[in-house]
Specification:
amino-acid biosynthesis; eight-stranded mixed beta sheet; 2 domains; single chain; 8 strands; P5CR_dimer; 11 helices; alpha/beta; cytoplasm; Rossmann fold; ProC C-terminal domain-like fold; 47% helix; EC 1.5.1.2; proline biosynthesis
Length: 274
């Protein structure tokens, strides 16, 4: 294979739900892919608009033709039935990118062929607004050229990071893949606490939403570590310190989060084992 950078060319997107739709919108906006064909009996609302406008093509079954890139964006539970028809779309130079949790490169290769270049990726739901982050693992047939192309495509939804071991994708899933749900729960519980302390439900939720969103944006924009930002907000013997004494005490947030991430990692591994 030459060292000349590859372009995405024709892309087959198997699965047009939220994540598939987010990726397709990002590619279209950035011009990082060529023609995009979506296979899904019921594509999501955002993709339906693009299909109706003629920006994407669509079918309910995999076409009997080859594509440059195949993106697997179906639910892990459906992969066993979704993969066999995809083999007709995979040629010697096709790149396969899977965003299905718990589906290993071996499982994909068993269906599509041992020589296929496979990248496992774990994006998260902020990809819907271009603010996601994606953790990736490159299979044994993935060259630097293929890796660069996969990163170019996936970065349409936010930053891309790579792990050296496939098992680490389970940890990525537990931290960032499932992580938005943890943050949403934080906002829920913060609002509920505000309501319990006397605020109206609407005001408590507004304060919680904007506090979580603003703090997250500050973390992204700041060069300081979260621990430094936390200390900057915390006056000695002040109100924040009183709250942190509870959250950082024995049995507080840190050990609870470790147990939560471990549970998610364990479940991801179970899915990988079938």
């Amino acid at each position: 294979m030459s060292d000349k950078p590859r372009t995405a060319g024709r892309v087959l997107l198997l699965g047009g739900g939220n994540m598939g739709g987010a990726m397709a919108r990002g590619w279209a906006e950035q011009g990082s892919a060529g023609a995009i064909h979506v296979v899904d009996p019921q594509p999501g609302e955002a993709l339906r608009a693009s299909i109706e406008a003629g920006r994407l093509t669509h079918s309910t079954a995999v076409p009997d033709e080859r594509f440059d890139v195949v993106v697997l964006a179906v639910k892990p539970q459906t992969m066993a039935t979704a993969l066999p028809p995809v083999r007709a779309a995979v040629g010697p130079q096709t790149i396969v990118i899977s965003v299905a949790a718990g589906t290993t490169t071996k499982t994909i290769a068993d269906h599509l062929g041992d020589g296929v270049a496979i990248v496992r990726a774990m994006p998260n739901t902020p990809a819907l607004i271009g603010r996601g982050i994606t953790g990736c693992f490159a299979g044994e047939n993935v060259s630097q050229q293929v890796r660069d192309l996969a990163e170019s495509l996936l970065s349409a939804c936010g930053p891309v990071v790579w792990v050296a071991k496939e098992a680490d994708i389970d940890v990525v899933t537990a931290v960032s893949g499932s992580g938005p749900a943890y943050v949403f729960l934080l906002a829920e519980t913060l609002a509920a606490a505000g309501e319990a302390a006397g605020l109206t439900p609407e005001l408590a939720m507004t304060l919680a939403r904007h506090t979580v969103a603003g703090a997250g944006e500050l973390m992204v924009r700041s060069e300081d570590a979260p621990a430094v930002l936390r200390r900057n907000v915390t006056s000695p013997n002040g109100t924040t310190q009183a709250a942190l004494d509870v959250l950082m005490g024995e049995g507080g947030l840190a050990p609870l989060m470790r147990r939560a991430v471990e549970a998610a990692k364990r479940r991801a591994a179970e899915l990988s084992e079938g």
